[in-house]
Design brief:
By secondary structure, the chain is of the alpha/beta class. The protein contains 11 helices and 4 strands. The chain has a domain of 131 residues: 5'-nuclease (Rossmann fold). The N terminus is likely disordered.
Length: 195
Amino acid sequence: MAEAGGQGPVRPRVLIDACVLYPSVLREIVTGCAAAGLFVPHWSPRILAEWAHAAGRLGPEGAATAADAILRLRAAFPAAEVLPDARIEAALDLPDAADRHVLAAAIAAGAGVLLTRNLRDFPRRALAPHGIAAESPDDFLMRLWLAEPAPVEAVIAGVQAETERASGRAQPLRAMLKRAGLPRLGRALQPPGPP
C-alpha cells in the first residue's frame, strides 16, 4: 500500500509504553527500527516522565542518563509526542486506571498498535473499539523481522556492537535479546547449535 503521492509503503503508527522505553537495549532496538522507517513511533510526555522516574530509581546517574536519552529521542522523532484528550482518557475502562493515559495517547496518535510488556493491563475488549491491538515487543519485532529481515538485523547488530562497547565485554546475541525481553526473536536470529 502506498502513501499519498506514491512515496512508499504506509508505516504503522505505534504507541510505545514506558516499559518498552526502559530498559535501554530494548529501547534502542525498537527506536532503531523506527529510525529505519519500519514504523512511526509515538509516546506522550507522561510516558516519557514514567521512563525518567523508573530510571531515577537507580540514582542520579540513572536520572541523568534517562534525561539525555529523552532529549535525543525527542530530537530524533520530533513528531512522535502526542497529548491525550483528558475527556477520552477519563472515559476509558482498563483494569488499572493508571494505564488509561497510555491508551488515550494511542488513540491521540491514531496508533494501530500499543507496544507494551504489560499485555494484561490492556485487554482486547478495551482496545478493539479504538482499532488498537496491544502487542509485546517480542511479537512486534518478530513480525517486523519476518516482513523485512535486513533492516531489523542491521539495527540489532548495531545495538549489540554498542552494548559490547559500553560494557567492555562480549554480548552474545541470544542472551542479550533474552535479557531485553526478546527471547523468541533471539531464538529466531540465533538458533541453538547442533547437540
